[in-house]
TrEMBL record, chain A:
<dbReference type="InterPro" id="IPR035906">
    <property type="entry name" value="MetI-like_sf"/>
</dbReference>
<dbReference type="InterPro" id="IPR050366">
    <property type="entry name" value="BP-dependent_transpt_permease"/>
</dbReference>
<feature type="transmembrane region" description="Helical">
    <location>
        <begin position="256"/>
        <end position="278"/>
    </location>
</feature>
<comment type="similarity">
    <text>Belongs to the binding-protein-dependent transport system permease family.</text>
</comment>
<feature type="transmembrane region" description="Helical">
    <location>
        <begin position="210"/>
        <end position="236"/>
    </location>
</feature>
<keyword id="KW-0812">Transmembrane</keyword>
<keyword id="KW-1133">Transmembrane helix</keyword>
<dbReference type="InterPro" id="IPR000515">
    <property type="entry name" value="MetI-like"/>
</dbReference>
<dbReference type="Pfam" id="PF00528">
    <property type="entry name" value="BPD_transp_1"/>
</dbReference>
Automatic annotation (TrEMBL), chain B:
<dbReference type="GO" id="GO:0005886">
    <property type="term" value="C:plasma membrane"/>
</dbReference>
<comment type="similarity">
    <text>Belongs to the binding-protein-dependent transport system permease family.</text>
</comment>
<dbReference type="Pfam" id="PF19300">
    <property type="entry name" value="BPD_transp_1_N"/>
</dbReference>
<feature type="transmembrane region" description="Helical">
    <location>
        <begin position="21"/>
        <end position="47"/>
    </location>
</feature>
<feature type="transmembrane region" description="Helical">
    <location>
        <begin position="256"/>
        <end position="275"/>
    </location>
</feature>
<feature type="transmembrane region" description="Helical">
    <location>
        <begin position="190"/>
        <end position="210"/>
    </location>
</feature>
<dbReference type="InterPro" id="IPR000515">
    <property type="entry name" value="MetI-like"/>
</dbReference>
<keyword id="KW-1133">Transmembrane helix</keyword>
<protein>
    <submittedName>
        <fullName>ABC transporter permease</fullName>
    </submittedName>
</protein>
Length: 288, 327
């Protein structure tokens, strides 16, 4: 589940090449930010964007294709899909953000402990990470679901825990790179104390990429959580969660394509926009 | 210096290189055995956290209303009346001999069941990996350092490709190729035709990720001194790309293969479910839904073992492709 590590590899290569300074926001980044703003508003105040009730059924108006009145069409009970997508933003976003916070939190904890704890602790944490990496992707999440049982909370926890090893490895590598840097060496030679170096150099520079990692991670977490909902292990169909909506639409794929296409489109756009924006943040934090 | 002395000085160097490789291989395999043991331990104790009587679960869950005698018999058969440490050692012994017990829901031995499912998933994952590499190589070599538009299209394709979740891409390809055009079956039939859509679904996002990494390292390689000297020797730009830069660009991709394997296995859970294709992924999902513990443990162990083998192999492969790592 560590697509982030792929990002990290690409980013390391890009750093190595040190592309010229780019201070202005690109066109893609502005579009991405606008879309994410739309999702954010949908999550906080869905009524602003869609006055209709996402759960209101209208059997006489079932399976209407997209039209001007109902731009994303209606589902098997005549519920407005646009309204459901807008109202579903909150649960998808809450799951994605919580999972990322859990994953990042655990990852930072493990990474910092490994990076600062001396050789024995580092060895131990590394072995633990190796074990977790041997249960790749969905596997760890599915195993956790077997133990705790399915549901939204489990999904969030499972996605969070299974992303943690990836974050931990990135944070540990960053910490070790900072620790062996010239400015830390200079501070040591100047006789600065361990805590001073930790506070002034190690932590700020290790945690600087957190914002970028988090932005990239939320997109991934939303995708994984909706995959679990899609498989019937997370949020269940009546609730307007994007993955669950997609699962409900699968039954009617050949007759009502709009039921599957639009919720999925929002998952993809959110993931892609988070990636684009996260990379922008990454470039900027690196320059400082 | 005579030719004889050169070969004499070279021979021990070669032997020590083989020795270093063997040492590294042994180390990696020992690490792999440790990881397998840890995974087995972790799963054993985590499964104990599931509420309820394990003997009841063996007999089909709380709904089965098993008699007291049947429960006692199940406890004795599975050693559930033993102290937890003895149970743990028994479980380790069974796993080490490839005995995963029998499935709660299917009432069959787990090991032969999973072995019969493994080949389908490996075929799916292997083909997808190959196609993903091909797609990523094509897009990256064609568009990197091309015109501005080509570069934009190339990296755009990669970002969008990597952002496509399997469940949605599968839905789209079914809509287009099965429902719309009617070219391919929406359900994976046994023949090669039934493999096209599942492989496409798995390969495109992976190609997006591989392509992003390859583009960056290709840019690196095209600026390198050896690319410059190849150009100075009068080699064509295509030649420089295909012969010199690509080898360099493939390296980070190879080192990502362990990750790619995990990504494909996760994808297989989704893809095999959507296309109703028999395989390890679908078996795992069914077992998770039914809380069929022996099957879940079996899949976990098999995937962990395969993951370890893949990482060891890619480590060796990386050493073969990268001359600087050979010393």
């Amino acid at each position: 589940m560590s697509a982030l590590e792929v990002e990290a590899v690409a980013d390391r290569l890009a750093t190595h090449r040190s592309a010229g300074p780019r201070h202005r926001f690109g066109f893609g980044e502005i579009l991405a930010a606008l879309f994410l703003l739309f999702v954010l508003v949908a999550a906080i105040a869905p009524a602003l964007l869609s006055p209709t009730d996402p759960l209101a059924i209208d059997p006489g108006d079932a399976f209407s294709p997209p039209s001007l009145a109902q731009i994303f069409g209606t589902d098997e009970s005549g519920r407005n899909i646009y309204s459901r997508v807008v109202h579903g933003a909150a649960s998808s976003l809450v799951i994605g953000v919580s999972a990322t916070v859990i994953g990042l939190g655990l990852g930072v904890l493990l990474g910092v402990v490994a990076g600062l704890g001396g050789r024995v602790v580092d060895f131990g944490v590394n072995r633990l990470l190796e074990v977790l990496f041997a249960l790749p992707g969905l596997l760890l999440a599915l195993f956790l679901i077997v133990v705790i049982g399915p549901g939204v909370v489990t999904t969030t926890l499972a996605v969070g825990i299974s992303t943690a090893p990836g974050y931990a490895r990135i944070i540990r590598a960053q910490l070790i790179a900072v620790r062996s840097s010239a400015y830390v060496e200079a501070a040591t030679v100047q006789g600065r104390g361990r805590w001073w170096i930790l506070r002034r150099h190690l932590l700020p520079n290790t945690l600087a990429p957190l914002l970028a990692l988090g932005t990239l991670g939320v997109g991934q977490a939303i995708v994984w959580a909706s995959a679990l909902s899609f498989l019937g292990l997370g949020a269940v169909p009546p609730s307007p969660e994007w993955g669950a909506m997609l699962a409900a639409g699968r039954t009617y794929l050949s007759s009502a394509w709009w039921m599957s296409v639009f919720p999925g489109l929002f998952i993809v756009l959110t993931a892609v926009c988070a990636t684009v924006l996260g990379r922008g943040v990454q470039r900027r934090t690196r320059q400082r | 210096m005579t030719p004889g002395s050169t070969s004499e000085t070279r021979a021990p160097a070669r032997r020590s290189r083989a020795g270093a490789l063997a040492l590294r291989l042994t180390g990696r395999l020992a690490g792999g055995v440790f990881v397998l043991w840890a995974v087995a331990t972790l799963t054993f104790f985590a499964i104990r956290l599931i509420p309820g009587d394990p003997a009841q679960a063996v007999l089909g869950g709380p709904g089965s209303q098993a008699s007291e005698e049947a429960l006692a018999a199940a406890r004795a058969e599975y050693g559930l009346d033993q102290p937890i440490l003895v149970q743990y050692l028994l479980q380790l012994g069974r796993l080490a001999t490839g005995d995963f017990g029998s499935s709660y829901s299917l009432r069959t031995e787990v090991a032969p069941l999973l072995l019969s499912q493994l080949s389908g998933t490996l075929l799916l994952a292997g083909l997808s990996l190959a196609i993903a590499w091909l797609l990523a190589l094509l897009v990256a070599t064609w568009t990197t350092r091309g015109t501005r538009a080509a570069e934009w299209v190339g990296s755009g394709l990669e970002i969008v490709g990597a952002g496509l979740p399997h469940f949605w891409l599968a839905t789209l390809v079914i809509l287009v190729f099965s429902v719309g055009l009617g070219w391919l079956p929406p359900i994976s039939t046994p023949g090669p035709l039934g493999l096209v859509l599942p492989v496409l679904t798995l390969a495109v996002p992976l190609a997006g990720f591989l392509g992003q990494v390859m583009r960056e390292s290709l840019l690196d390689a095209l600026d390198s001194p050896y690319a410059l000297s190849a150009r100075a020797r009068g080699e064509s730009e295509t030649g420089v790309r295909l012969v010199h830069a690509l080898r360099h660009a493939a390296l980070p991709g190879i080192s990502l293969s362990g990750w790619a394997f995990g990504y494909l296995i996760s994808g297989a859970v989704v893809v095999e479910t959507i296309f109703a294709r028999p395989g390890l992924g679908r078996t795992l999902l069914n077992a998770v839904t039914l809380r069929d513990v022996p099957v879940v443990i079996g899949v976990v162990m098999i995937v962990a073992l395969t993951y370890i083998l893949v990482t060891v192999l890619t480590d060796l492969l990386g050493r073969i492709v990268d001359p600087t790592a050979r010393a």
